[in-house]
Amino acid sequence: MEGLGTTVTQHILRSIGGDNPEAAQEIAGLVGNLLVATKVISTEVNRAGLLDILGLTGQVNVQGEEVQKLDDYANEIIVGHMKTSGQVCVMASEEVEEAIAVTPGYEGNYTLSIDPLDGSSNIDVNVNIGTIFSIHRKVSSGKAGNEADLLQLGRTQVCAGYVVYGSSTMLVYTAGKGVHGFTLDPSIGEFLLSHPDIKMPAKGKIYSINEGNALYWHDNTKRYVDYLKEKDPATKRPYSLRYIGSLVADFHRTLLKGGLFMYPMDYKDPNKPKGKLRLLYEAEPMAYLAEQAGGRASDGTQDIMDIQPTGLHQRVPLYIGSRDDVTLAEKFVKGEA
Ligand code: P6P
Q1: Can you tell me which atom of ligand 1 is nearest the CA of 261?
Q2: Which residues line ligand 1 (CB under 6 A)?
Q3: Where do the domains of the chain lie, and which CATH numbers do they carry?
Q4: Is the pLDDT of residue 179 over 90?
Q5: Residue of 163, 277, 286 best suited for mutating to test ligand 1, as the one with most atoms within 8 Å of CB
């Protein structure tokens, strides 16, 4: 018998253990602890429907207990568990304004930036949601990490990925040696390798964008989307539109099938155009995965992985997916096509 299958710890040690055995052990330990928290979240997410059926509206349940919003709950589970993991020196979370210190005496060599439960507004319609994570090595001196340790380039990530809570619970991660998918086997409570070495097609035929915002896009973005809708079999146009409204779900499809996901700059206020998605714990980790799978991620003018973060919750426009599709989108956005 082949054995139980490959666990995440085994895979990380095999992937990067040859380069740096100590770092591999530390990263495997960090991800292993994070996955314990995601298993707890997965159970609660799967119960969420039940809570709704029982009329528990996320306010106060029949026992008179306050039922936490699931994204707050997910944040507390992950932050609470990782504070004493011994691998992390400081954390950033979509749910917390400031940098999060770890428990004194448990400081580690890495930072952890998370979106604890991205797309949580989709829970009550049973749409896939996910936990997104990004890991950098500590760069500051001293034991406790600080905001400077969190505000690092996407290109310096050592590990990143997401756990998608859907028909099955899946981890997709990279540690710089390709992108690999693991499926949670609930009967043994273990994530086992199910999608080794995921590669994105160089060009796809699906585009993913909230067309309801078309009024607020820059003209160059409008031109690109109109181009995708024109008939030209030689370039697989018109593309199909798929938009779930949950980044993890939309990215997971793009990773497996190709094409591109876009959340462009929003010109609702022409004087203050801005992106929606967050650089540190959404765009950077997804960009690392995209590049490791042979794709690209851009803010429309430059690689996401080359943007120097200036704030924990900084927003950026995002064009991510198949290499050729993102490169052409960039040309349109820059007015070069
Ligand atoms: P819109 C979910 O709220 C989220 O942060 C991402 O998961 C998703 O890609 C995006 O917002 C959807 O935004 O404006 O299309 O609803």
Answers
A1: 9
A2: 118-119, 121, 210, 245-247, 250, 276
A3: 8-195 (3.30.540.10), 206-333 (3.40.190.80)
A4: yes
A5: 277
- Terminal CA-to-CA distance of the chain, rounded, Å? 55
Contact 231, 238 (CB under 8 A): yes
Residue 187: partners with Cβ closer than 8 Å, 6 or more residues away: none
Rg (the chain; Cα; Å): 20
Which residue type does 126 have?
Answer: N
Chain segment 228-244, per-residue pLDDT in tens: 999 999 999 999 999 99
pLDDT in tens, 3-49: 789 999 999 999 999 999 999 999 999 999 999 999 999 998 888 76
Buried b (16+ CB within 10 A) or exposed e, 230-247: eeeeeeeeebeebbbebb
Q: Which two tokens stand for residue 125?
A: 């319609």
Q: Which residue is listed with tokens 């992985």?
A: 305
Assign residue 88 a region (left: φ > 0; alpha: ψ between -120 and 50; beta: otherwise): beta
Centre of ligand 1 to C-alpha 46, Å, is: 21
